[in-house]
Amino acid sequence: MHEPTPSTFPMLLGQRVRRYGDRVFLPRRRAQDPSPITFDRLLADVDALAAALLDLGIGRGDRVGLIAENRYEWLLIDQALASIGAIDVPRGSDTTPTELEFILRHSGCRAAFAEDDGVAAELLAMKDGLPQLEHVFVMQDETRVDGATALGVLLRRGEDLRARAAGALDAAREAVQPDDLLTIVYTSGTTAEPKGVMLTHRNVLSNVRVVTDVLSIDERDVFLSVLPAWHVYERIMDYLALAAGSQLAYTDRRRIKEDLAEVRPTVFAAVPRIWEMLHDGVVNHSRKLEGLGGRLLRRSLALSRAVGARRAGALQRLEHALLDRVVLRKVRSQFGGRLRLCVSGGGALPRHIDETLLGMGLPIRNGYGLTETSPVAAVRLPHQTEPGHIGPPLPETRIEARREDGTPCAVGETGVLWIRGPQVMRGYYENPTRTAAVLTQDGWFNSGDLGHVDADGNLWITGRAKDTIVLAGGENVEPEPLETLIKTSPFVEQAVVVGQDQKTLGVLLVPMKEALEQEVPAAEWDERDGVLRGRAVEALMRRELDRMMTRENGCRAVERIGALRVLSEPMTPENGLLTQTLKVRRHVVAERYGDVIARMFDRHVT
């Protein structure tokens, strides 16, 4: 059994290092750097950096930007700041200069750590608009940027200071209190205006403690980390590994399949889009595979979905069990063969993906939460193998579905989800108006998500209240469930339903190009201005929509898709249409494709 989780990060790190010492915590410093880091090394570097920062006058309550991607240095800086009571303000290195300047100015950062020289130069170019920014540090051994200081220089300086500063370090660690701010995380996400979510040591470590117990995480686990470290979902996974004495290996989206096989993790957390890509990779491989092997794999996947959905009869279950030994075991080996926790969070996992992965023998665990809840509020428990639901709220956490008038919904009735628990944020930094709009005096947080709680106490998510589309006839439509259904088509990779104030719904589709080309040769695609206008492509997609958007699949008449456009390029974080956790940024899509959407409805005849 691991020791109880302390209530501050300086206490946690000291306690875990005493227990695990020379055990390897990080087998690699970053995705493609195999240098291992032990628990002892982490604490030594944390103390050196903390000493250097204290010597510069940075201490308890100061805000410090952390603009970087996953790597050892990210965790090192995060823990060094926490150990002296400073507050990190993290963001990805690809954040636009305008947004980055707003975040650093609004939070009042006195210093900022940059991923590399390029990011450091951007920060220094902003200094006229950032009067409080005194220091820019680069997460490298050396830097060529005038006005910036390399992390390597800070660490060497701190090593020299550490013996003389031991008393100051001890005093700084002891001064940190559970209700001190750990971090301010700005979440523009799918909305336009960034909000600074204030999370305390107590908020985050209460979540670490409960999730560790609920999911039985211990020192034997190996985590594979792919999501951006500045996002609280990934951050909590890294903290879980630290608290349990587990191993944590970094990867990136280009290396996921390779590292699943190489690292052989026991725990892998990802957003729904990554699970979709992994699922689709197996499905597409099955379509290309010829002969008996292809037929067996395709049959195995079809049976897996039936078994995962709990629709399989006795003979199907028997056939599935036989194919599991012959076929599915080989598929699981491509995921490393040791996964005991496959966590999906940060959005709704499409039902067909959930069912198929469960049937394939991958222990998928839907989780639910927000940055404002540090982040986990509910998770499907290890013994729960039913698809669709999220599981119950965490211990010490309450979740209620409420109607517009604030009264509680009945069992199974959909409403806005309200959350209360020790992980709920303190509020939005320097934004009392927006804080008051979502957080009550007695600690209830309005998530803005729509869902219900079933008779067994399990949570179901159906969409976002602010994403609701109101048609011209006054009908309310939740786009996310429709998009999830549309993406069950083998020809659709991404879908965004639109139609605010229109007579009918429309949809922007990104095709699964390999599958599309098997049905419609690329010569017939007619790509112009970012849209595939070929009649054969549109006809295929129309048939797919008509096949899926039926009453039998739970669609109302008003939810029929009246107009469609097929986009030639996927939506990605790089082109700004997805967040770093691969959620659609609806306002950006609406702006980028405004003309396409307008023409789509102008030409549509009801």
Written description of the protein model:
By secondary structure, this protein is α/β, with parallel strands linked by helices. Helices cover 39% and strands 20% of the residues. The chain is built from 20 helices and 27 strands. The chain has a six-stranded mixed sheet, with helices on both faces. A five-stranded parallel sheet has the order 4-3-5-6-7, sandwiched between helices. A five-stranded mixed sheet has the order 23-24-27-26-25, sandwiched between helices. Helix 2 crosses helix 3 (72-83) and helix 8 packs across helix 9 (232-244).
Helix content: 25-40%
As an assembly, this protein is single chain
Q: How would you state the average pLDDT, rounded?
A: 92
**Range of strand content:** 15-25%
Overall geometry comes to: globular
For the termini, the CA-CA separation is 64 Å
- Count the E strands: 27
- The helix-and-strand class reads alpha/beta
Biggest sheet overview? 6 strands, mixed
Q: How do the strands line up in the largest sheet? A: 11-10-12-13-14-15
- The total of helices stands at 20
Q: Report the uncertain regions.
A: none
Computed Rg:
25 Å
